[in-house]
Fold this sequence. Notes:
The protein is mainly alpha-helical. It contains 4 helices and 2 strands. Strands 1-2 form a two-stranded antiparallel ribbon. Zinc ion (ZN) binds next to helix 3.
Amino acid sequence: MANEADRAQIHEETFRAASLARTKTATGPEPLVIDGQVCCANCEEPIPEARLKALLGVGLCVHCAEEGETAPAQGKDEEEKEEE
Ligand SMILES: [Zn+2]
């Protein structure tokens, strides 16, 4: 089956591109590779290829990235309001 080899090559190229991009951007955790599929470093869900291409080197799925973005920054505002 040449089909499987082709798919393996596509996965390899995708992950290599992500790894190369990561050395330039180097933000967030490194993605996991499970069965040749690039997966979220947090929940281990596969990251869609469209997201990998849009955000080269991304290591989190959409859900985990959103949680990470909203969580840390908001504590400050609440503290400031209490002081007033
Ligand atoms: Zn995730």
